[in-house]
Design a protein that fits this description.
Blueprint (H helix, E strand, L loop, with lengths): L7 H21 L10 H15 L6 E5 L7 H11 L4 E5 L3 H14 L3 E4 L11 E5 L6 H11 E11 L3 H9 L2 E9 L7 E10 L1
Parallel strand pairs: 1-2, 1-4, 2-3, 4-5
Antiparallel strand pairs: 5-7, 6-7
The protein binds S-adenosylmethionine.
Keywords: Cytoplasm, Methyltransferase, rRNA processing, S-adenosyl-L-methionine, Transferase
Pfam families: GidB
EC number: 2.1.1.170
Length: 200
């Protein structure tokens, strides 16, 4: 549903991305084997909803722990149509996954940069929008947001059914403002919009 209104070029980039995932997945496990037949619904649409929810126009979007590129590469592909974000940075510590991300960027002609490093060691990214999917609990993500968000920036964190508990735990260590949107792809999941992160 979310990816219906995209250009022919964007559809072609997503198809090429899907082909590359299928080719590389047996070697480096980018997505679970069970989810491979449902790439468009399970991973592309799940990632694209973050683009739809972000406060555009966005200058710099950083995706932490990108793995096979979710949501970061989908954001970079959609940005080719909307010119927002202008720039995407993906942080991934695994060298083989980083090589995959760079291959997709090259073959689809995207404007995105991969940093092969730990999030904790990467120089502050000053991102206007920060995303991280299936990376860590919310309290840990707050530390990443404090380091890598520009002043006034927004973090978008997809979270599963435990999101209320994660907010309560994060509030014992961090001050922040959060807004909750229901996920469009999973009835139990939400997208947390987090701003104003500082230590409690
Ligand atoms: C469970 S995967 C999720 C990948 C992707 N975001 C997704 O939703 O499919 C987590 C990824 O984060 C990377 N990662 C975990 N801790 C990291 C860290 N401290 N710095 C950089 N990358 C990290 C792992 O190598 C892995 O590729």
């Amino acid at each position: 549903m979310i990816l219906r209104d995209v250009s022919r070029e964007t559809k072609e980039r997503l198809d090429l991305y899907a082909t590359l995932i299928e080719k590389w997945n047996p070697r480096i496990n980018l997505v679970s084997r069970a989810s491979l037949p449902n790439l468009h619904t399970r991973h592309f649409a799940d990632s694209a909803q973050l683009h739809a929810l972000a406060p555009h126009p966005v200058s710099h979007w950083a995706d932490l722990g990108s793995g096979g590129g979710f949501p970061g590469l989908v954001i970079a592909i959609l940005a080719q149509d909307t010119e927002s974000p202008a720039r995407v940075t993906l942080v991934e510590s695994d060298a083989r996954k980083s090589a995959f991300l760079r291959t997709v960027i090259r073959e689809t002609g995207l404007a995105a940069t991969v940093i092969t490093d730990r999030i904790e060691s990467t120089a502050p990214l000053q991102a206007d929008v920060l995303s991280a999917r299936a990376l860590a609990d919310l309290a840990t993500l707050m530390g990443h947001a404090e380091r890598h968000l520009a002043p006034g920036g927004t973090a978008l964190f997809p979270k599963g059914a435990t999101w209320r508990q994660e907010i309560a735990e994060a509030q014992s260590k961090w001050q922040f403002t959060s807004r909750v949107d229901k996920s469009r792809t999973d009835p139990d999941a939400v997208i947390l919009h987090v701003t104003g992160v500082s230590r409690a």
